[in-house]
């Protein structure tokens, strides 16, 4: 008996392949950013497999968004801590 | 030798071939598509998506080639409710010629009425019959009974049988058994010839 569906990794690589022409047309800097986005989605392949979405690219997009939002939250916390450090202390 | 008509000159035209192929599907005909070219598999999956948008569909997969992700993408492109349309597709996979013959000859009793009138797609039909672990006579017997069952079933609903790799002895048998049912409905998607390489200068 064989596998009846391509694995989520195969589906991911296939989706990445679909965008190879798009990637080729981008500037070098943008190509690296796009690679980062796909790398972010790749981190969540296990969750994407568990989601079993008939359109796996939707899950990959959400995984990219998840990683982006994690970065936003991390940066927000960093800015908040910096602002608190720089704020004048009136207690003195 | 079976007389066929070519449907493929260039793989880029596959999407344009979908409407005429869809319109030719009619009951009382056993449509046969011979397609060594892998691009035709995508055509069949797109056809399955088109049929699923309109009603229930039964798929018997002999080559483990029914990629549901491709069907889902085609449904999304067509603007259909993907989950609802996918719910109308009933897929059964056969990995041996015995399983294929059983699926074709004895539809499950719970689905008998469902399958009787719904279009049927049999993908990579001859793949399981190329198994050399099964004696040739046994394979021929199973193929003959399968073809007779398909002939019986095509009276109620259109049936499309696809073959990816031709087997000479089976093709002749297919022509004998299916004679009168698939006269002009055999389509062939040939591998397109490579265009000649243009040279700037003659050597």
Task: Report on the architecture of this protein.
With about 90 residues, chain A is mainly α. Chain A has one domain. Helix content of chain A is about 75%, strand content about 0%. Chain A is built from 5 helices and no strands. Chain A has helices at about 10-20, 20-25, 30-40, 45-50, 55-85. Chain A is elongated and about 70 Å long. The model of chain A has no long low-confidence stretch (mean pLDDT about 90). With about 200 residues, chain B is of the alpha/beta class. Chain B has one domain: Rossmann fold. Chain B has 8 helices and 7 strands. A 7-stranded parallel β-sheet of chain B has the order 1-7-2-6-5-3-4, sandwiched between helices. In chain B, helix 1 packs across helix 2 (about 40-55), helix 2 crosses helix 3 (about 70-75) and helix 5 (about 95-105) runs parallel beside helix 7 (about 135-155). Chain B is globular and about 65 Å long. The interface of A and B includes residues 3 and 14 of A.
What are the salient characteristics of this protein?
heterodimer; A: 92 residues; mainly alpha; elongated; B: 203 residues; alpha/beta; Rossmann fold; 7-stranded parallel β-sheet; 8 helices; 7 strands; globular; disordered N terminus
């Amino acid at each position: 008996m064989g596998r009846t569906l391509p694995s989520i990794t195969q589906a991911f690589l296939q989706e990445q392949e679909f965008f190879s022409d798009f990637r080729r047309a981008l500037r070098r800097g943008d190509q690296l950013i796009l690679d980062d986005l796909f790398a972010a989605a790749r981190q969540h392949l296990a969750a994407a497999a568990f989601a079993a979405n008939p359109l796996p690219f939707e899950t990959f997009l959400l995984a990219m968004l998840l990683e982006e939002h994690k970065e936003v939250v991390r940066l927000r916390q960093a800015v908040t801590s910096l602002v608190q450090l720089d704020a004048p202390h009136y207690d003195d | 030798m079976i007389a066929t008509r070519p449907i493929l000159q260039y793989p880029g035209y596959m999407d344009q071939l979908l409407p005429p192929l869809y319109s030719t599907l009619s009951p009382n005909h056993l449509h046969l598509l011979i397609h060594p070219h892998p691009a035709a598999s995508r055509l069949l999956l797109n056809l399955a998506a088109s049929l699923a948008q309109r009603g229930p569909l039964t798929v018997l997969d002999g080559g483990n080639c029914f990629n549901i992700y491709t069907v889902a993408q085609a449904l999304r492109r067509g603007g259909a409710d993907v989950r609802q349309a996918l719910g109308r597709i009933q897929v059964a996979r056969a990995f041996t010629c015995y399983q294929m013959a059983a699926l074709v000859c004895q539809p499950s009793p719970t689905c008998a009425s469902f399958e009787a009138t719904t279009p049927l797609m049999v993908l990579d039909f001859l793949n399981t019959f190329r198994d050399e672990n099964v004696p040739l006579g046994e394979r021929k017997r199973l193929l003959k009974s399968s073809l007779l069952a398909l002939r019986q079933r095509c009276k109620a609903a259109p049936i499309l049988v696809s073959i990816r790799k031709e087997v000479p002895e089976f093709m002749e048998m297919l022509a004998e058994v299916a004679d009168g049912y698939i006269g002009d409905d055999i389509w062939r998607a040939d591998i397109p010839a490579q265009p000649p390489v243009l040279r700037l200068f003659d050597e």
